[in-house]
Amino acid sequence: MGIDEYPPHKTIHTAVFQDTTYGDIDAKKPQADFLWRGLFPSGNGLVSVSKSDREAHGLSETWPDPDTPGNGLFFMAGYHNLHCLAKIRTSVFESQAQKNQSEPWAHVMHCIDQIRQTIMCNIDTTLVPMSGPKEFKDGHYHVCKDYRDVFEWASQHRPVVAPEDSEAE
């Protein structure tokens, strides 16, 4: 198994992208906020990996897990990206409501750049049909990793002490 296959993501499927309740605003925003919080597994994507798994998959040295001798702590990049997207989302809503920004500007800009790099690394080559000169159609297929599989793996490998769920937002 190569480094790009660890953690394992055995299930690949197709998904149809379309507008969802994650993008709701105004009166429905509290429901969307609840859904966004549910994107993070227990531990928010911080995982504890054994020394043997680190060596077998060529993972870098990392901070030791204080509760499991020999294990090391890693933060799954996908959850870092979701954390960043959640911070940008909060910043946009605060700006739209003309509220003071709760996140430092440098953090928001770090998050934008982090997501840019990830999109460029994982560029989706799906051909998206157009409904007009500047309008994209929803409802076409993409090939995706199974989010539930990754979510469950992250939850199962959560360290004993991990960030609170509220810290992910």
TrEMBL record:
Query: Matching InterPro entries, A to Z?
Result: UstYa-like (IPR021765)
> What highest taxon heads this organism's lineage?
Eukaryota
A Pfam match: UstYa
Q: Name one GO biological process term.
A: mycotoxin biosynthetic process
PANTHER family in alphabetical order: OXIDASE USTYA, YALI0B05434P
Name the family the entry cites.
Belongs to the ustYa family.
Task: Report the protein name in the record.
Answer: Uncharacterized protein
The organism is Botrytis paeoniae
* Source lineage: Eukaryota, Fungi, Dikarya, Ascomycota, Pezizomycotina
